[in-house]
Amino acid sequence: MPHLPAWLRKPETHFDRLHEIKLGLRGLGLHTVCESARCPNIHECFHRGAATFLILGGSCTRGCGFCSVPKGDPPPPNPEEPENVARMARRLRLRHVVITSVTRDDLADGGAAHFALTVRAVREALPEARIEVLTPDFRGDPGAVARVLEVRPHIFNHNLETVARLYPRVRPRAGYRQSLEVLRFARRHSPNLMTKSGLMVGLGEEPREVEELIHDLREAGVEVVTIGQYLQPSRRNLPVAAYVPPEQFEAWRGYALSIGFRAVASGPLVRSSYLAETVAREATEAAC
Fold this sequence. Notes:
CATH class: Alpha Beta
Strand order of the largest sheet: 1-2-3-4-5-6-7-8
Number of strands: 8
Strand content: 5-15%
Number of domains: 1
Mean pLDDT: 93
CATH architecture: Alpha-Beta Barrel
Structural class: alpha/beta
Distance between the termini: 44 Å
CATH topology: TIM Barrel
Order of helices and strands: HEHHEHEHEHEHHEHEHEH
């Protein structure tokens, strides 16, 4: 691929704040998806005091083609991690706390119980904060999904990531329909909960396939969708097939809103948790 187009270039600034937050995280043994996924927005978000916590360790049992999180055999969940996440969230004075995780196929419940413990710990530390969980697919186990839903996060997010045709290459150990069913189950189980999903483009999909994915999410009851450009995080990851221009993102945003989504974040640098508080507020206001 050619050099990044102008709309994807973002200056790296705010180094002092970046290092300050990293030191705080390391002191508590915590990970963030901002660092592990090499997010292009990390300087901006850390400067604002926002971070997306990555629980259940720093190694993933899968190793999807798009993801830079290390693949390996992770240790047992750290029993101190839920309280440490809550401690850091309180230190940052977060009003919107996003909790995601590596995929833990080695655990019987995929880490659902640990998710629940973390949500409870954050709620106790920050009772006024909105809590958003961004979960793996838990191998499609509805019992595991229910365990997370039963602790009442405000937002349940599970990313579809890419169009159905590309799953064998991009997410070979996941399933498009399985992920849709996770979202559909969450909607049925907790109808008052806000549901959210996200996808990347630039992996070789066709525009119509993206529209089909957006339609499938709406049919599953999803209310909020995020669409962003895939950027190759390392040489071992899948190459970028195309840099999608901003006007195409705007077209997808218009389509998603036209079929009933409450909020849509669609743009080259959009990520699932980027400006999550703003997106959630837009969705809440749209429902009023």
